[in-house]
Queue: 2 jobs
Job 1
Amino acid sequence: MKADTPIFEASHVSLRFGGVRALTDVSFSIDKGELFSIIGPNGAGKTSMVNCVSGRYSPTEGRILFKGRDVTRMTPNHRAEIGIGRTFQNLALFGHMTVLDNIMVGRHHLMRNNFLSGALYWFTGARTEELAHRREIEEIIDFLDIQHVRKSIAGTLSYGLRKRVELARAMALKPDLILLDEPMAGMNLEEKEDMARYIVDLNEEYGMTVVMIEHDMGVVMDISHRIMVLDFGKKIAEGDPEEVLANAHVRRAYLGEADDVVMDEDDEAAAVEAKTGKVA
Ligand SMILES: Nc1ncnc2c1ncn2[C@@H]1O[C@H](COP(=O)(O)OP(=O)(O)OP(=O)(O)O)[C@@H](O)[C@H]1O
């Protein structure tokens, strides 16, 4: 990858579900080290976009590039292997397993050796590998302040702590790009503040590029370097927090403010579609 190649690029991405247009011709790019947020009203296409990045959905049209490589048709597992990690809007932890085991699950693909393979374990370097692996996991556990619950069963923890464990699992994959789907959802103010700090630190200290969907505008404006705004599946604005806040399209989409932006025919059609689920 050339030094100036963006770590991620979406080029003219459209996504349809039958007659519903979830995304229409969305293009954007993210530089290595950015903390990039995607915002927009309900149904704007944020989750659809993130799913196109993670590989859960394949765009109907357009291309997805990661580190300069075309990954448009690559499976989510393969994308995870090359450095795209994610958390989910709804928690996806194994509730009956311990915190530690949940985090280890995230790491399996990184391990060259199967460390359960008996005698080979001692002679193949698997043991050294496992020790290094454990050390890194413990570092992440310390980083997210979850030492005190490492042996607890995940399903018994508070919601805020479970969100943190889920973040630990995604971080354990050592992704270059981490997708955070509503990391503050359902949290109280204190939990939100903690989570915001962890996200800034994982971006700055671990050097992970972050793509975040979040409904809490205070947090988004506070920690994002750049923000893309979607409305009815289209990109309506992109820029730093100040630019986005000052943008007339955004004010209308969020606050219902009248402005001098006139909807074109496609916008009207998308609006009808979003309300009725039918292509106009
Ligand atoms: N699997 C699906 N099948 C059919 N339609 C879908 C599917 N996923 C999303 N959509 C539709 O695509 C549009 C965009 O949805 P999406 O979930 O991406 O929006 P969002 O911005 O993430 O919304 P929210 O903030 O409510 O989570 C909506 O009209 C939605 O109903």
Note: The pocket of adenosine-5'-triphosphate is lined by residues 17, 20, 22, 40, 42-48, 274 (CB under 6 Å).
Job 2
Amino acid sequence: MRVHVADHPLITHKLTVLRDKNTASATFRALTEELVTLLAYEATRNVRVNEVTIETPVATTTGVALSEPRPLVVPILRAGLGMLEGMVKLVPTAEVGFLGMVRNEETLEPSTYAERLPDDLSDRQCFVLDPMLATGGSLGAAIDFLFKRGAIDVTAICLLAAPEGVAALEKRTAGRDVTLVLGALDEKLNELGYIIPGLGDAGDRLYGTV
Ligand SMILES: O=P(O)(O)OC[C@H]1O[C@H](OP(=O)(O)OP(=O)(O)O)[C@H](O)[C@@H]1O
Ligand SMILES: O=c1cc[nH]c(=O)[nH]1
Ligand SMILES: [Mg+2]
């Protein structure tokens, strides 16, 4: 598994505002979208393209176009939905599939309550969006799901991750083509499975629930 942790003052600045408990939902949503667009630039570094020939007003030249099949973007509901607009701004022709997952806050086990993905993902590049990688249970299950359907490679974009979750994902995806792009790698998980220092519950903060 390749892990890329962003190292850019603009990303760190936006994450600092996001972490602040006094940041309101509307600002939180706007910043999440901006952060995803910045992280998506790195996450799409190996997006597949093919050469094309075009005419400029003054000459013939070659360039590239995104290859078929189109990339598939998969936000993990609910919190991942807050990352979707930022991603499709950068890759407007991507197809979007959905996975609804929720973690049991006592056992920390994820369960899947919704799935709307193409049946056959053979030969597809997939980009999974979830702001928080805590124990890694939710993202691990989502990645398993995509490979079972035939995906060839999966890139996950997370705003924050805990080292425990990254290690669990590394073990679970051994031998697979998986890339993890993170806004920051935090210190640890607390006894309730929350990322420290983190930003709290991303879904609650995005959608104003408590
Ligand atoms: O790495 P894990 O330990 O599995 O935890 C991370 C998961 O927890 C959050 O979702 P949550 O279950 O709170 O659902 P929500 O998006 O509906 O709030 C988050 O968006 C991840 O999906
Ligand atoms: O810190 C955490 C851990 C899991 N889910 C969240 O939204 N936040
Ligand atoms: Mg939540």
Note: Residues 2-207 form a domain with the Rossmann fold fold (CATH 3.40.50.2020).
